[in-house]
Design brief:
FAD/NAD(P)-binding domain; 2 domains; six-stranded mixed β-sheet; binds flavin-adenine dinucleotide
């Protein structure tokens, strides 16, 4: 049987790694526990409304990522968001420093889906075990037990705590490395309104109270449906209220929205991101050539969507260099 490279995690890091290996001629198989692709690049849809409840937008500073963004703009999976976020509670951000902000269209996961074109991707596969057999790596998952594929290498493209847990048996040293990188939570509320809120801005960074960010989802290109605002709590508040129930989180964040001048929501829902942001390192990626296990993700490359993409690309190149060397 032809051996493939297994990629665990179909967020932007895993898919960037997978696409680079695919383009170099490798057979790659991607697994994700979710029903769709994109990980934290995600859009929630309800009856008549939609909201980007994970990453709000992304920026591109590195030339390699800028090239990738040009490709996405070219194939229509990404658009520019002409937003001018207000800064509430401080005016530390100078206007001339405003970056170009990019979005997936029609939803945030569109660029992830574009990367995955032609790849073998298995969703609803929660990988729980990595077993090193004589013929290569075998995986098991929560849904089906042991899987039939044999893999020459394994790429773990997960938030650091999840990578640490998955690697505990297969590589205690990689597990320890991942466990040393803390990730930060974010409670998010999606608030549906009867009509557009007249706040004088369509997005804002907030520097006081429980909120960190709010945005009018309908102001983004390609979005439709009922008027909806995304309210994100700051990491400190989210950590302090991590185990609170969704109802009380909604009450607090909606009240903070109203104190900023927002109207009462007619309906709302909350999502707890246990691992939203990271205390990022600049390792780029990690590759253990002896075991044939690699790690990539935003937490290894400065954080954010750009860091995740660069980390996956970085790891794929390490794997390819090793083969050529
Ligand atoms: C609320 C919020 C706001 C953000 N705002 C911004 C922003 O404005 N700009 C920006 O650039 N970035 C932002 N980010 C961060 C950005 O989304 C991430 O940096 C980036 O998407 C991380 O990509 P990744 O591939 O490293 O990880 P992820 O996207 O987390 O991908 C990991 C994947 O692994 C899967 N997985 C986990 N465990 C398993 C398992 N056992 N088996 C199989 N699959 C598994 C998950 O389902 C997921 O799809 C935000 C994130 C959040 C949550």
């Amino acid at each position: 049987m032809r051996k493939s490279i297994a990629i665990i995690g179909a967020g932007i890091a895993g898919l960037s790694c997978a696409a680079t290996l695919r383009d170099a001629g490798h057979h790659v198989v991607v697994f994700d526990k979710g029903r769709g692709l994109g990980g934290r690049l995600s859009t929630r849809r309800g009856e008549g409304w939609q909201a980007d409840h994970g990453a709000q937008y992304f920026t591109a500073r590195h030339p390699l990522f800028q090239q990738q963004v040009q490709n996405w703009l070219g194939n229509g999976s990404v658009a520019i968001w002409q937003a001018h976020p207000a800064v509430l509670g401080s005016s530390q951000v100078p206007a001339h420093d405003a970056p170009v902000r990019y979005l997936g269209v029609p939803g945030m996961s569109a660029p992830a889906k574009a990367l995955a074109a032609g790849l073998e991707v298995h969703t609803s596969h929660t990988i729980q075990g990595l077993i090193h057999a004589a013929d290569g790596w075998r995986l098991s998952n929560a849904e089906h037990g042991q899987l039939s594929g044999i893999h020459s290498q394994v790429v773990v493209a997960l938030p650091s705590p999840q990578a640490a847990s998955l690697l505990a048996q297969a590589s205690p040293s990689l597990s320890t490395l991942a466990a040393a990188h803390r990730m930060l939570p974010c409670w998010t509320v999606m608030a549906q309104l009867e009509e557009p809120a007249q706040l004088g801005f369509e997005a804002a960074f907030v520097n006081s109270g429980p909120l960190r960010w709010l945005a009018r989802n309908n102001s983004k290109p390609g979005r439709s449906g009922q008027e909806c605002w995304v309210l994100q709590a700051n990491a400190h508040w989210s950590a302090a209220h991590l185990e609170d129930d969704a109802a009380s989180v909604k009450q607090t964040l909606l009240m903070a929205f109203e104190q900023l001048g927002g109207p009462p929501a007619v309906a709302s829902s909350a999502h707890r991101w246990r691992y939203a942001d990271c205390e990022a390192s600049n390792l780029g990626s990690v590759w253990d050539a002896t075991l044939g296990i690699g790690l990539c993700g935003d937490w290894l490359h400065g954080g954010k969507v750009e860091g995740a993409w660069l980390s996956g690309h970085h790891l794929a190149n390490k794997i390819l260099e090793r083969e050529q060397g």
